[in-house]
Amino acid sequence: MAHERRKIIDLLKIDPKNEEALEVVKIIAELYAKENQVREAKLNYGKRRTLRREQSRS
Questions:
Q1: Alpha helix (H) ranges present in the chain?
Q2: This prediction's pTM
Q3: Do residues 12 and 25 touch, judged by C-beta distance below 8 A?
Q4: In this structure, is the dihedral angle defined by the CA atoms of residues 29, 16, 21 and 8, taken in order, positive or negative?
Q5: Distance of alpha carbon 35 from alpha carbon 55, whole angstroms
Q6: Rounded CA gap, 20 and 22, in Å?
Q7: Count of domains observed in the chain
Q8: What gap in Å lies between CA 51 and CA 54, rounded to an integer?
Q9: Digit-coded pLDDT (tens) for 29-58
Q10: DSSP label at 17?
Q11: Is the Cβ–Cβ distance between 28 and 8 less than 8 Å?
């Protein structure tokens, strides 16, 4: 995900008002936040997987 995010950020440097790129950056930020929550919960693999699946659908 980091590679894709960097490419989008590069695009925004060229075109800072690109609405699609801004939306993608927002979605990636939300995914990072959710992943951080999963990591902080210190759950076992199965519970992390379940939580990721539940959160990815919301």
A1: 2-14, 19-41, 45-56
A2: 0.70
A3: yes
A4: negative
A5: 9
A6: 5
A7: 1
A8: 5
A9: 988 888 888 888 888 889 888 888 887 765
A10: T
A11: yes
pLDDT in tens, 1-36: 677 888 889 999 999 999 999 999 999 898 888 888
Task: Give the pLDDT confidence score for residue 1 in this predicted structure.
Answer: 67
Q: How many CB atoms lie within 10 A of CB 9?
A: 13
Domain residues for 51?
A: 2-56
CA-based Rg of the chain, rounded to a whole angstrom? 14
* Rounded alpha-carbon distances, angstroms, from residue 22 to 3, 6, 9, 50: 16, 12, 9, 29
Sign of the dihedral through C-alpha 47, 5, 8, 4: negative
Token pair in block for residue 2? 């980091």
Do the beta carbons of residue 38 and residue 49 sit within 8 Å? Answer: no
